[in-house]
C-alpha cells in the first residue's frame, strides 16, 4: 500500500508544490496527413516528404512527469503541464509516466520498466514530479513553465523529422530522422528516444483521478480548478493526457544509440520501426514523440537536445 505524504497547500496565486510519495507541402515543422504511401526505403521519397534538412532548427522542450491516478496531488502536475504546453504550442510537449495504476498495468515488456527507470535515474521520490529536458535542476511542477521558457530561448543544435504511415489497420511504420546543425562532443553518447502517447484517456472507474483539492477533502484548495470536482474525479471531470502507452525501438528511457559519425554538422540518423497498435488505444488520439538525448555519466549531465511530436498517421517535417 503506497503511503501518502500530506503537504500543506498554500492558497496563493500559484499552486504550491505537493506530491504523493511512493514506495502535401506545408511549412517547416508542420504536420500533414498524406494519401499516397511513401516508400520509406527510398531516400528520395523520404526527402520529398520531410523536405530539406534545414541549416538551423527550432528549439523545443519536453516535460516528462511521473504521475498516478491514485495520487490526489497529481492533478496539480497535470495543470502545470497543460499550462506550459498551451503557452508554447508545438514547442513544448508532455509525457506522463504512470505508476501503480491501471494505465501502468497496460505497459508492455518494453515499456513496463520506463517509469522506474525514470524515477530512479532522477531521484523522484514523490509524485507528481518530473523534469524539463531531463535537466536535474528541479522536479517541482511550479517551475516547469519558466524552465521551458528558458529552454526555448537556447539555440538548437539538432532537430527531428517524423513519418508515421499505416501499414494495416493495427500496424504503423514509424520513421524518425535526427539531424544536426553542428558537431557535438564525440565523447558524449547521444540517443534517439521515441514514445507512443495517447490523449483523452478515461475508460471506467479504474481511471478515476484522486483529487485532494476537492472541497470535501482533508486539504481543500479553492484556487484549484478541481476544487468542486469530487474525489476521485470521473471522466466527466477529468481525462488523462500525454499518457505514455508504449516505448518504441528500445526498452526503457534511453532508446537507440546514435553513431558518433552521425552527430556532425549536416549529419543525419534515422530509425525505422513497424509498430503494432494495441486495439485498446484510440488511434485518433495517438501521437509519436521523439527526442535526441545526451546521456551523461550521471543524471546531472543528461540533457534532451531537442524533441518533436507527430500525430499518428501524419508527417512532421524537419524542424
Plain-language structure description:
A hairpin with a 2-residue loop joins strand 7 (158-168) and strand 8 (171-180). The protein has five helices and 15 strands. The chain has 319 residues and is of the alpha+beta class.
CATH topology, by name, is Immunoglobulin-like
CATH class: Mainly Beta
What portion of the residues fall into strands of 2 or more residues?
25-35%
Helix amount, in percent? 10-25%
Order of helices and strands: EEHEHEHHEEHEEEEEEEEE
Q: What is the approximate shape?
A: globular
Number of domains: 1
Largest sheet: 5 strands, antiparallel
Tell me the span between the first and last alpha carbons. Answer: 45 Å
Radius of gyration: 20 Å
Tag the structure with descriptive keywords:
5-stranded antiparallel beta sheet, 5 helices, Immunoglobulin-like, single chain, 15 strands, 319 residues, alpha+beta
Amino acid at each position: 500500500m503506497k503511503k501518502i505524504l500530506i503537504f500543506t497547500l498554500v492558497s496563493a496565486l500559484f499552486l504550491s508544490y505537493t506530491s504523493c510519495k511512493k514506495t502535401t507541402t506545408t511549412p517547416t515543422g508542420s504536420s500533414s496527413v498524406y494519401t499516397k504511401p511513401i516508400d520509406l526505403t527510398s531516400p528520395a521519397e523520404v526527402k520529398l516528404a520531410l523536405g530539406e534538412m534545414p541549416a538551423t532548427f527550432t528549439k523545443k522542450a519536453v516535460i516528462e512527469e511521473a504521475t498516478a491516478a491514485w495520487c490526489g496531488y497529481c492533478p496539480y502536475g497535470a495543470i502545470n503541464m497543460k499550462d506550459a504546453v498551451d503557452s508554447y504550442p508545438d514547442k513544448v510537449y508532455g509525457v506522463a509516466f504512470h505508476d501503480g495504476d491501471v494505465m501502468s498495468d497496460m505497459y508492455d515488456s518494453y515499456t513496463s520498466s520506463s517509469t522506474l527507470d525514470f524515477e530512479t535515474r532522477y531521484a523522484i521520490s514523490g509524485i507528481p514530479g518530473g523534469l524539463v529536458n531531463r535537466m536535474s535542476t528541479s522536479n517541482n511542477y511550479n517551475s516547469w513553465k519558466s524552465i521551458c521558457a528558458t529552454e526555448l530561448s537556447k539555440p538548437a543544435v539538432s532537430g527531428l523529422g517524423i513519418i508515421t504511415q499505416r501499414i494495416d489497420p493495427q500496424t504503423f511504420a514509424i520513421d524518425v530522422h535526427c539531424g544536426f546543425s553542428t558537431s557535438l562532443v564525440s565523447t558524449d553518447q547521444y540517443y534517439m528516444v521515441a514514445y507512443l502517447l495517447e490523449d483523452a484517456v478515461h475508460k471506467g472507474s479504474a481511471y478515476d483521478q484522486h483529487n485532494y483539492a476537492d472541497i470535501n477533502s482533508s486539504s481543500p484548495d479553492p484556487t484549484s480548478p478541481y476544487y468542486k470536482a469530487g474525489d476521485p474525479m470521473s471522466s466527466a471531470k477529468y481525462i488523462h493526457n500525454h499518457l505514455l502507452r508504449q516505448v518504441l525501438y528500445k526498452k526503457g528511457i534511453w532508446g537507440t544509440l546514435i553513431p558518433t559519425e552521425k552527430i556532425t554538422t549536416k549529419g543525419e540518423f534515422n530509425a525505422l520501426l513497424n509498430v503494432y497498435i494495441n486495439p485498446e488505444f484510440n488511434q485518433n488520439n495517438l501521437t509519436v514523440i521523439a527526442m535526441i538525448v545526451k546521456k551523461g555519466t550521471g543524471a546531472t549531465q543528461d540533457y534532451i537536445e531537442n524533441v518533436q511530436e507527430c500525430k499518428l498517421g501524419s508527417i512532421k517535417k524537419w524542424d
